[in-house]
Write a structure and sequence with these properties.
By secondary structure, the chain is of the alpha+beta class. The chain has a single domain, classed as Enolase-like, domain 1 (2-Layer Sandwich), CATH 3.30.390.130. It is 22% helix and 28% strand. The chain has two helices and eight strands. The protein has helices spanning 40-54, 95-102, and strands at 4-5, 8-11, 14-15, 26-28, 30-33, 36-37, 59-64, 67-72. It is globular and about 40 Å long. The relative contact order is 0.20.
């Protein structure tokens, strides 16, 4: 399994912008952690995920019970080492290929 890279994203409280569900409304942030294998493919994927983050593609704001919250966007992330594809975890032999295609 090897060592894991663990990109950790911390999203603060802020106000949503044009294009979000309710522009100008405050939203709740959170901590988000994703796992990649520490190998050449994993490091390449980490660089692509960083670019996606810088372009605002990693997260989205959704309304949940009348509250705006930051959630994962459409780019798939592995949020655990176990549980397989069904639980956003490993093992998933196709993940790196699939996420690079999306990116």
């Amino acid at each position: 399994r090897g060592t894991a890279l663990q990109p950790l994203f911390k999203m603060s409280y802020s106000c949503s912008k044009v294009g979000d569900p309710r522009p100008g409304q405050p939203y709740t942030g959170g901590n988000f952690c994703a796992f990649l294998p520490d190998n050449k493919e994993g490091q390449k994927t980490a660089m692509l995920l960083k670019k996606a983050f810088e372009h605002g593609l990693t997260f989205q704001i959704k309304s949940c019970n009348g509250e705006e919250r930051v959630t994962w966007g459409l780019i798939p992330h592995k949020t655990s080492w176990g549980g397989g594809k069904a639980r956003n975890g490993y093992p998933d032999a196709q993940y790196l290929r699939e996420v690079c295609t999306v990116l």
